[in-house]
Structures are given as structure tokens and as C-alpha cells.
Amino acid sequence: MNGFIEVDYAQNWKHSERIAGDVFLLSRDKTEGRIVCTLSDGLGSGVKANVLANLTATMGQKFTTSRMDIVDSARVIMKTLPTCRERKISYSTFTMVDINSSGVAKIVEYDNPPYMLIRNGKVLKIEKTVIPLENRFPGRTEQLYYSEVNLQNEDRLIFFSDGVSQSGMGTAKLPLGWRTPFIEEFVTAEINKDRNISARDLSRKITSRALLNDIQKAKDDITCAVVYPRKPRKLLLVSGPPIDPENDQHLLEKYEAFTGKKIICGGTTAGIIAEGLNTEIETDLRERTADIPPLSRMEGADLVTEGILTLSKTAEMLETKDSWVAMQTNAVRRLICMLMNTDEVHFLVGTKINEAHQDPSIPVELGLRRTIIHRIKTILESKYLKQTFLEYI
Amino acid sequence: MEKISIEICTGTTCYVMGASDLLTLEEHLRPPLSSSVKISGSTCLGICRDKRFKPPFVRVAGKLIAQASVRKVLKAVEAEYSGGSYAYDE
After folding, report:
1. What is the dihedral of CA A307, A309, A312, A314, to 10 degrees?
2. Number of H helices, E strands in chain B
3. Which of A234, A253, A315, B2 has a 20 to 30 A CA-CA distance from A386?
């Protein structure tokens, strides 16, 4: 496997709860190309479950990233976790996944539904090692499942909380819940329908279906995570004219040579590129709001927008996960959707300061392009685990 | 008759200085003017670098209106339509 690994998750809270009892944590070590993620389901729901799940997931995440053996980490967690006195069960369950740069995934599971691996549109059977745990409760054996998988491009590794597998339980259609064979059937059908379906979209499809099984009132927290290794999808975002006009040519060459989606944010920048490529820019006045200028079209570019206002709003919307979903279609929403469907974002940023922006009579604060781009870059990396590259010209 | 072109700058400076209001221009046009104009946007007319003029900028039939407002643009369009004169900035 070589390329990019997209990891995303979707979640619905138990009906009437205001906080999730399932917690999904994810970290990506840039230098090593390693990904660690943990899904934990706390007993019950609401705040108590959230605290327990957070405790478990944070421990798992910390131990695993700090190079502790994944099975040992799981053991320590098991020993640390409080147990329910009445029900004699642990307060939380977990699935921990540790993927190295060559795509080998080590997976430890404790009491969560078994994960699924889909390859070439089919479910792959996985050999798992059973690791028995010290007998904490007389008459009941507890065990961890450990497995190693060599991930290949276009695989989907899917894991979820029991809110997914038990959805619909008690209904006429799914009296015993949405059991593994049904979920497998659903997932393979979705992948075969759209071979390039992103981790983001697939996890959402699964949780929406689980919610539908529960007749739109989730009986438990529903969480699903998907790991999707693939060739990286690349995007170039050009913004700002070069400080030295002699570098306009350099900007043009970079723009032309790039393979992948291309976005231009900024009127002057778009002008430079259009002139260099001898093409026209056409502004589409339909999609605009009071604070976001309209977008434009140019042959060869996938999106052309205004600069600072659009980028500032984009940074603001990106800070809250999914906040743009309810937004009306405009330049910002289009930009965010393109960013979300990309793995590698290349920023090519001109550093020339627009003097007109420095006019004290301007009624709103216009940030500096470099600062805003840097903010977007940081959010994309830390919150959405995108790979980013930044070049100033 | 050839339509009168109205080009509205939607660059950052113009947008915050009032171009967002100017984009509602179409709603203020009544017949026969509404059918005699062609409104388009521009990513940046490039005039903000010229210290003599203040944004937002609109070009009516190729001529510049600085500190443009819906009222100013309407007056210019009326003048263009009836063959009258309007004091353009450039």
C-alpha cells in the first residue's frame, strides 16, 4: 500500500441525549506516517458514558502512540477501567487500530462489534488471536481479539459501536437488530454502487441507515468509523499575487503543472492566471450572500472565488465539524466541500499585500492572507487530518 | 439597440465597501431599463490600486463610477438610455 489513508467517522447520539456516550479519537503522526485511532463505547449513555468512553479512548490513544505494545495497552486499560458492580461488566468497550506507514494495521478489540474489512467489493475473513484476560469476574471469561491486516489501496476497514449493530432491534423488520450479515450486505452494496465512496460519506451512510432502523430515534449512541487507504486526491489552492511581479510566470507554471483539482481564491490572482493562459473569467452573480462574494468560472479551474472574505469565512466554518452542511450553496460551501473530498492540499500563496485592504475606512477587519491560510492549514491538519503543503511566492 | 453593460467589481475591497448591495441592482431596475442592460460581475476591476478613486467600483458602458451606489448607477444608466449625460469619474 502506498498513498493516503482517509479516516473519518460519523455519529448520532442516543435520542434525547445531549452528548455522545461513544468517543472516537484519531491521531496521525506526520513524520512516521502512522495513524492511531480508538473507538470507545461507555456503559449507558449521556455524560457518564461520555466520561468513561473518553477515559478509555484517551488512554488507548496515548499508550498506543507512545509505542507501547497495543495488546499491553489494552491490558492496562482493562485493569484500570472501573467495572459495574451489579452487572459485572466493564464500564466501556473499545476498538484500537494502529496503522503504520506501510499499511499494516494492528487491531485490538474488546467487546465492540467485530470490525469489517472490505476488499474488491467483498467481505474479507480475518483470522483473530484470542487473548484471554485475568479472571476478574468469577464464572465469566473476558477476552481481547487481536488481528493484523495488510491494508491495500481501495480497502475499507469499518468499525462501529453496538448502536449500529443493535439498531432496529425489536422492530418487525429487524427483530434482533442490524446484525453483521445485514450490515455487510448494506456496506458492500454501497461500495459497489460507488467504488470511490469516501470514508466520510460511507460512515455517514452507515450511521444514517442505523438511525433509520431505529425509526429516527436512536436507541443507543450510533458511531461508525471508516479507514480508507487510496491514492491521494490532490488539490491546489492558489491565493494572492506574488510579491514580485516577475514571479507571476512562476505562479503560472506551478498552476499549469499541477495535476489534481485547482482552486483560485482572489480576484487579482485569477486575473494573473487568466491573462497568462489567455482565457476569460466569468463571474456568476447568483450564489452570493451579504458576507460572501459570488464565485467565478474559468476554464481549467475547478473553482474561482474572491480571496480574503471567502477564506476567512472558510476558516471560521471549518472550525466546527459539519457546520457548513446546513449552509446555502455559495463559494465558501463549495470550497469546503472540495477540501473535504481531498487528501492532499497544496497552498500556493502570493505574499503581496493589497494596499487597498489597509484603508482605515473599510468597515470590517480584513485579515492578512498569510495568517488566514495558515489558520486553514492548521485546522485541516489537526481536525480533518489532511496532508498539507504550503509554498509562499 | 445594444444593451448597456454594467460591470460590478466583486473584489474584496469593493465587496466590503458596498458591492454586496450593488449586486441587488437588478431588483431596482424597472422597464424599459431592466431589459436594456446587461449586468455582470468582475473578480477585480483593478482600480483599487489607484489612490484617486474610492471603492466600490462599477463600470457603466465602460465608464467608471467610484464610490458607487445603486442610486448613482441607476442615474448613469438612465442617462445612457436617454442619451443624457452623467458625470463619470473617469
Report:
1. -80
2. 4, 4
3. A253
Query: Is the CB of A363 less than 8 angstroms away from the CB of B16?
Result: yes
Q: Please tell me the distance from the alpha carbon of residue A188 to that of residue A92, in angstroms, as a whole number.
A: 29
Q: Cβ–Cβ of A285/B44 closer than 8 Å?
A: no
pLDDT tens by residue, A209-227: 999 999 999 999 999 999 9
Domains of chain A are 4-230 (3.60.40.10), 234-392 (no CATH)
d(CA A389, CA A380): 11
Q: Are A218 and A178 in contact (CB under 8 A)?
A: no
Q: How many CB pairs under 8 A join A and B?
A: 81
Nearest to B24 by CA among B66, B56, B64: B56
- The number of CA neighbours under 13 Å toward the Cβ of A57 is 21
Task: Pick A296's closest partner by Cβ from B9, B20, B43.
Answer: B43
Question: What is the spatial distance between Cα A127 and Cα B44, in angstroms, rounded to a whole number?
Answer: 61
pLDDT in tens, A245-270: 899 999 999 999 999 999 999 999 99
Q: What percent of chain A has pLDDT over 70?
A: 96
The answer to whether B15 contacts A356, with C-beta atoms less than 8 Å apart, is: no
